[in-house]
Amino acid sequence: xxxxxxxxxxxxxxHGLRVDQALRRLGQELHACRQRREGRLRVITGRGWGNITxxxxxxxxxxxxxxxxxxxxxxxxxxxxxxxxxxxxxxxGSTHRA
Length: 98
Prior knowledge:
Layout: E1 11-13, H1 19-35, E2 40-44, H2 57-67, H3 69-73, E3 76-82, E4 87-92
Parallel strand pairs: 1-2
Antiparallel strand pairs: 2-4, 3-4
């Protein structure tokens, strides 16, 4: 696998938000990234140990959303877990328009 820049230029910090708030903000930021023709977005979710159940609820929900129809609709072509599990580097597909 080829290594790209260590960190995407665009970044959004979702940690501390409720899942519904985080997913809404993520969709807005992905749309903005496509408008700016950016191919990557770092999504900070935190590792999840700060909640009452000590489980990474937000990151799991974000990953599921990115893999599903909403992620595809926003041009997500894939992602990888970075920052010791506290963030995701999201790749966006083609941003050109016919």
